[in-house]
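diacylglycerol cholinephosphotransferase: structure, please.
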Amino acid sequence: MGYIPRGALENLKKYSYKGVDKSLVSKYVLNPFWTWFVTLWPLSVAPNTITLLGLCIVLVNFVTLLLHDPAYLAEKGGVFVPSWVYLSCSIGLFLYQSFDAIDGKQARRTGMAGPLGEMFDHGCDAMNTTLEVILASQALNLGRSWWTVASQVATLANFYLTTWEEYHTGQLYLAEFSGPVEGILLICGIFAISGVYGPSFWDTGIMTFLRLSSVPVANQLPDLPLNDSFMVFAAFAVCFNVYSSYNNVRRAMRAAGKPTVQPLRLLLPFVLSVAIQVFWLSHPRYDDSAIINSALFVPFLCAWGLQFAHQVGRMILAHVTNSPFPWWDWMWVWSFVCAIDANLPLIASRPPVIQTSEANTTAVVYLTLAISFIAYGRFCALVINDITNFMGIACFTVRKKDKDGVWQDTVPDAKKKL
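Here you go.
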């Protein structure tokens, strides 16, 4: 059958999406808008088509930014991106959020709800995560910096935690303040402010911005720039999400009569994958040829993001097929070898074997990007092929196979509950 064993495919028929959204913004503001917005789409449009269109909008934002700042220097590097680019990123991210929210509603309208939509939705979200880190970090005037790396780690950690939590509880939990709702709106606001005032606005000290520099007690606190302060806030958000996610998992494990500590071991694959990437990035070459100080920084982050998408994609697949949790990803071997090679001066007091020059390092990073893209693309193609063939559905059209195996256009009831 391809990528998924037949026994696991049988579990697809038992899968049903379950979610809990405690966000007041989602309930009273966004959901009424989404319920109206989905009615603008013809019933002939497949839910996955809407999801893909949302990702394409973000990709356009990403390409537009790199066309104006290909070296990813931001304003602190002397590059001034037109304000409309940031404003378009704000609009694009809001549209992505809206498209991502209504694809499930469209699935229920068209009778196409199922595990394929769950896989496709989360797969696009995983890729969008890294793209938005790159876009938002540039808008915050962070550019090539360890703060951008920290933002990548924090954002991927939140996504991994959500997927890990859903695997163990069977439900997608969105708290009162969650990344897919309030987090996205916050980043939309960052883009809008950067469009009006420029990214250098975020270099303003927080005490200066709040006009507390002259207050006796407050002036003893560090005047941390707003962009750095945002990163500190993100770190606290990750800690809160770890606590919240584990509480949900612990309750689910107790209710099922299973050990409550064992799931924590399944966080180790993420820690290992991050350690490998950071180890490679922190190799002891601090001149302009170092990855973090060069134009290779963005392709490195993109390769990292694709490897992460492959990792969480397998986690989501394990969830919808009720299969064992994926502990291992072969792409780690490639990145680990590259990290060891780059750090040979530190490990063995000898120069790298492969990454001996800027040209060789460039070739290795872009080769890593290509391999990561091919590996994730292969995963997506094989999984989509397996699920559509087994379930008798199409991915990008509203069609199903009848009992004789003939494709039929569905005629859904437009009045179905959204």
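Notes: The chain has 14 helices and four strands.
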